[in-house]
Specification:
361 residues; alpha+beta; 4-stranded antiparallel β-sheet; 10 helices; binds zinc ion
Length: 361
């Protein structure tokens, strides 16, 4: 490894998750530029005797092998969105400001702090510090690991330390986009009766959307709210032509009790009689809170879980049959904002919770 600075992740930094958060924030790591931070993390983990470390691109994996019959994953992405006058970090009272403080270097700090300071956890743990979560899925470190080293993801339960403001956010909703296409016949608008207007034909589809009543579904105590929305419409040829084509793009956010196939069937039902073309879809993830490590985790947190409405990487674990949830100290409402910050108290609470959950018994 060639690096021109001393590794700032020293033992006295690793022992304090608050100092560690600031130190991680001060290693710039915008997506596709994670080599330096991955080098620093890898070096620290390699020097930790109770861990076996491996690397794929700028994704670092470290694991214990203590012979426990259950294994959990603690995962966090190393990258941030582009900096916006918010680098390096600044401290104001009990807040740390800076790019990635909330999303999600405070979460990464919790995992790295545990990796360095808990040699004898009550479950075997796989730590994953991965690249490129904030950009297109093809670069996503977890996606690449799932293809190249699926065994790195094998576990009974996974926690992603994404910002949730200290609340457990379980499962996630699926998402599907489709194009509803109408066709007609072109004509000069001066002789419109010779044509068929494809834009008018979309009116019926829009009325169905107006009348649509989305489901609310409760699974394992988590309430998911579905939504079906028009997100784009295009059509028209010229100012004097009856248009012969119009396309309405819709986005369905669906609760995890529907599969992608069932979600598509539902869209076909809603738009029966129309030409429906699937653009893309991603599955949801069931909250999976019945597994023993998950129940013990909820006890350690001591608060009710909430449903995750957006799509997150927990779905990658769910696709492998591994229950996963989000739990992290950052405030999701501050993610990607120029005034992004994290509360020091939330970092300390998070570290205490994880220690309670994973301490040797
Ligand atoms: Zn994130």
């Amino acid at each position: 490894m060639v690096r021109h600075m001393a590794n700032p992740l020293t033992p006295d930094v690793l022992v304090d998750p608050v100092v560690l958060t600031r130190t991680l924030v001060d290693i710039e790591s915008v997506s596709r530029d994670e080599k330096v931070i991955a080098d620093c993390v890898e070096e620290v983990l390699q020097q930790t005797p109770h861990l076996t470390t491996d690397r794929l691109g700028n994704t670092v994996m470290a694991r214990t092998d203590l012979g426990h019959d259950q294994r959990i994953v603690l995962a966090g992405h190393l990258d941030t969105v582009p900096i916006d006058n918010n680098f390096p970090s600044t401290g104001v009272d009990d807040l740390i400001y800076g790019c990635g403080t909330s999303d999600m270097k405070s979460g990464v700090a919790l995992a790295l702090h545990l990796a360095a300071t808990l040699p004898d956890p009550c479950y075997d743990i796989t730590f994953l510090f991965y690249e490129a979560e904030e950009i297109e899925a093809q670069y996503n470190g977890l996606h690449l690991v799932a293809q190249a080293h699926p065994e790195w993801l094998q576990a009974d339960f996974a926690v992603l330390l994404e910002p949730t403001y200290g609340v457990v956010e379980a499962g996630c909703q699926g998402t599907l986009r489709a194009k509803i296409r109408t066709t007609g016949r072109r004509a000069h608008t001066a002789r419109a009766w010779r044509g068929v207007n494809a834009i008018h034909a979309v009116g019926e589809a829009l009325r169905r959307l107006e009348d649509y009543r989305p489901r609310t579904v409760t699974i394992d105590g988590c309430t998911y709210r579905e939504g079906l929305n028009a997100v784009r419409i295009s059509g028209g040829v010229a100012g004097n032509v009856v248009p012969d084509e119009c396309t309405l793009e819709v986005n369905l956010r669906f609760a995890p009790d529907r599969t992608e196939k069932q979600a598509l069937e539902h869209v076909h039902e809603v738009f029966a009689g129309f030409d429906v073309e699937l653009t893309d879809s991603a599955p949801g993830a069931m909250p999976g809170l019945s597994a023993a490590p998950a129940r013990e985790f909820l006890t350690a947190v001591g608060a009710e879980p909430a449903a995750k409405l957006g799509w997150t990487d927990v779905a990658r674990f769910a696709a492998l049959g591994i229950p996963a949830l989000n739990y992290g100290p950052g405030d999701p409402l501050l993610a990607h904002a120029p005034d992004e910050h994290v509360e020091i108290g939330k970092i300390r609470d998070g570290a205490a919770t994880l220690h309670r959950w994973l301490a040797p018994r």
